[in-house]
Automatic annotation (TrEMBL):
Name of this protein: ArsR family transcriptional regulator
InterPro entries: DUF7347 (IPR055771), DUF7351 (IPR055775), WH-like_DNA-bd_sf (IPR036388)
Source superkingdom: Archaea
Compositionally biased spans, kind Polar residues: 46-56, 67-79
Region (Disordered): 1-88
Organism name: Halostagnicola larsenii XH-48
Alphabetized Pfam families for the sequence: DUF7347 (PF24038), DUF7351 (PF24042)
Residues annotated as domain DUF7351: 178-358
The DUF7347 domain, residue ranges: 80-160
Length: 379
């Protein structure tokens, strides 16, 4: 009843054995607000509630009663100013906070008396007034006076819990193990200022990246926040490379672009002629520019190349994926790039068109030696 959990995929092993349950442990982080997959991941597959079972599509379609329209329907149910006005009150914010805490503990919703007891309001009549202001957009109420968070209620309550709107986190520089891709010195540091993490080189003064990171991420990971920051953003890039906005799930448009002049200024001359991957969401306005190579870290060909050499591509952080990556511009109009990864003479080439589609993949071994690769990775 309380929404959001992974369905349990029932996969019969053969005709008459018992069913086996699977669930996905994948957690895909989100940059600025909440992490829904984390929540539902925690609740995953351990409960075998029949109504959450995901049935094969064919059986649902075959029963003939399911009305499947080709397009989603949508309507605006509130002005943003009205929706947020309902939140401008300490008691109501407290209710959402209590709901977020209790929702995990109940299958039937939270009762009026539970919410009232958790509040600091003196009279139940006064409390009822505030509660009613949330019903509709943020809370759903059933006939038995049980309350549940709506989708919007969960979104806003979690966003507030992350501290995105209320907390500012600064963190002094932390030295990173990887060397600077520009000057080669081991002098990179990550620093957080007002919930934005910057990775820069203290030797050549170049800034490698600046990206937002939720206050909750900075606070809960402490000194190891750079690792969490790397995971967070590589998954975001992976989502965008697959056409899905990590903020709003809207459609992402991808293209190769020339670097902005300000970026060019900061780069050494050998990087003057280079292009970047650009991801744009037309729905929420999220825009990200990054090295083209970063768009392909999740490609099966890339993952298996590393695996074949006893390595894991995920061990390389996004601020320096390694000198084995090179990008060459093949065409100016339209833009096209060849991204090459080379490990111990084993060469993987991805041919990328202007829409960031990989149009060809070639792998060739020049003098590959797997045992050498494994020894190198272990060193
Ligand atoms: Zn440097
Ligand atoms: Zn978006």
């Amino acid at each position: 009843m309380t929404a959001e959990r992974w369905g349990i995929l029932r996969v019969p092993e053969d005709e008459d054995t018992e069913t086996k349950t699977y669930f996905s442990p994948d957690r895909i982080p989100n940059m600025t607000t909440e992490d829904e997959s984390d929540e539902s991941g925690r609740r995953s597959g351990l409960e075998s509630t029949p109504e959450t079972t995901v049935e094969p599509v064919s059986s649902a379609a075959a029963d003939g009663t399911t009305d499947r329209s080709a397009t989603a329907s949508a309507e605006t149910v509130s002005d943003p100013s009205d929706a947020f006005q309902a939140l401008g009150n300490e008691t109501r914010m407290g209710i959402l906070d209590t709901m977020l805490e209790r929702t995990d503990e109940t299958e039937t919703g939270v009762t009026f008396s539970e919410l009232f007891e958790a509040s600091t309001v003196d009279t139940s009549a006064g409390f009822a007034y505030h509660l009613e202001q949330l019903v509709g957009p943020y809370l759903a109420k059933d006939g038995d006076e049980h309350y549940e968070l709506t989708y919007a209620g969960r979104k806003i309550a979690r966003a507030i819990a992350t501290g995105a709107y209320t907390r500012r986190v600064d963190h002094p520089p932390i030295s990173l193990a990887e060397s600077c891709p520009f000057c080669g010195e081991q002098s990179l540091a990550a620093q957080a200022t007002d919930n934005v993490v910057a990775v820069a080189c203290e030797n050549c003064d170049r800034s490698l990246l600046r990206l937002g990171f939720p206050p909750s991420g900075l606070e809960s990971h402490g000194e190891s926040f750079p690792d969490a920051f790397d995971r967070h953003h590589r998954h975001r890039l992976g989502l965008m490379a697959e056409g899905v906005c990590p903020e709003c799930s809207g459609e992402i448009s991808s293209e190769l672009v020339r670097t902005a002049p300000s970026t060019d200024d900061a780069l050494p001359s050998e990087f003057e002629e280079h292009v970047q991957a650009a991801f744009d969401c037309e729905v929420c306005g999220t825009e990200v520019r990054c090295p083209v190579s970063l768009a392909f870290l999740d490609r099966p060909e890339v993952v298996s190349l590393y695996h074949d050499h006893g390595r894991n591509v995920r061990d390389r952080p996004i601020w320096n994926v390694g000198h084995e990556w090179t990008e060459t511009i093949l065409s100016e109009e339209p833009l096209a790039v060849r991204v090459v990864v080379e490990l111990e003479g084993d060469v993987l080439a991805l041919y990328v068109d202007e829409r960031l589609d990989v149009v060809d993949v070639q792998r060739s071994e020049t003098n590959a030696s797997t045992s050498e690769g494994a020894a190198d990775a272990a060193a």
